[in-house]
Amino acid sequence: MVYIPLDSSRESSVALLREGNTFISTRCERYDTDIFRARLMLEKTICLRGEAAARLFYDEERFTREGAAPGLLVKTLFGVGGVQGLDGEAHQVRKRMFLELMSDADIDELTRFAAEHWQQAIGGWQRQKQVTLHPAVQLIHFRAVCRWAGVPIDADEAETRCADQAAMIDGAGGIAIRHWQARRARKRSETWMAELVEQVRSNRIQVDEDRALFRVSWHRDAQGELLTPQVAAVEMLNLLRPTVAIARFVAFAALALHEHPTWYETLRDNDTWLEPFVQEVRRVYGFFPFLAARVRDDFEWNGYHFSKGRRVMLDLYGTNRDPRSWERPEAFRPERFEQESINAYNFLPQGGGDHAVNHRCPGEWFTIALMKEAVRQLTRHMTYSVPPQDLSVDWSRLPIIPESRFIIESVRPVI
Ligand code: HEM
């Protein structure tokens, strides 16, 4: 048996909070390893990094997600009873529901709705002195996804409901105020959504049968039972909240356009480079740094012992910039997506493995499509200037965001 390096016999949670995204990769460098042990959030944890480790992590026979996510995340980001914590058949059935909502027609429709909301927003921005892009795009995406999902939303309600989705995302890695704001936002959102699910089921509101609100409300689990209104609400929020979260990638896309003006010029009239560009934004600015699972039964891997029940954390941040998979990983180079060998285990901005079998994010196609639309809007449908502001990114913050949230001014629509 090979010894797994031990980070520190005491708690490493304070270091995790202090260092944020770089916590695992810093230690992997320090101990010259892809695996080490640490005590995190009062629990012995094995931390893993790199493509080979990701292949292991996504072996469903070896790991379970049940009870793996830290309680702080479940109470803010995920919610209780959602797909993220399911295994086996229960997971497959629930996951199918999500994947069936992500057809090409759905992707096109959501993108079209987002484009319309961008156009309306740009019309209003030209009358404002400045616009803070991150919250503004959150609202664009929230309006678009509610429309796509069949969620009725009054104009005066949209901003507060959207702010709750944003609080759940921003509070996911926070402590103190950010954490408590996220918990309250989740409570309010679940109550709102559970009420809508009950209204659909009792025919008090009419929603088209192909809309997500209808389909989630009437979804049956592996035992043929309807979801409880609370769990159906959690799954509806698993569609709304992450679509709002895509605005964070849009803020980083705007940052990348600003820092790499040649890419701005290229993308103004070139569709070919849109996808490599947004993929590189997802790689460099992935804001979901780690994933957690638990060992199902004792096993050995490369001589290392994994004991039943042990929590394991996979480093997405470090794997997305592992020099064994990526050439000059610190450089922003969209062209790498044409040249380097990328697979489901070395590129993990939204998890890895197989969408249908594993817990890999079913929203990747929505994400790529809405990011491409955002880049089209920023480069082709408006002009703007970027005033002096603090554009730094604090990598110890969970989740990352440009400090100023990316402020633009002198917005003019391009007709
Ligand atoms: C799962 C990130 C957008 C719905 C995940 C996972 C990550 C992630 C890291 C976990 C993967 C794993 O456990 O192996 C992101 C990021 C997004 C995004 C960074 C962009 C902002 C979306 C969108 C949707 C979505 C747009 C839906 C509209 C989900 C669901 C799961 C998930 C339902 C759970 C899947 C499962 O447990 O099988 N996402 N996601 N996500 N995501 Fe996303």
Automatic annotation (TrEMBL):
Residue runs in coiled coils: none
Keyword Iron on entry: yes
Entries under Gene3D superfamilies matching the protein: Cytochrome P450
CDD domains to which the protein is assigned, alphabetical: CYP152
SUPFAM superfamilies: Cytochrome P450 (SSF48264)
Superkingdom of the organism of origin: Bacteria
Mitochondrion found in the keyword field: no
Keywords recorded for this protein, A-Z: Heme, Iron, Metal-binding, Oxidoreductase
Pfam families xrefs: p450
Assigned protein family: Belongs to the cytochrome P450 family.
Name of the protein this chain belongs to: Cytochrome P450
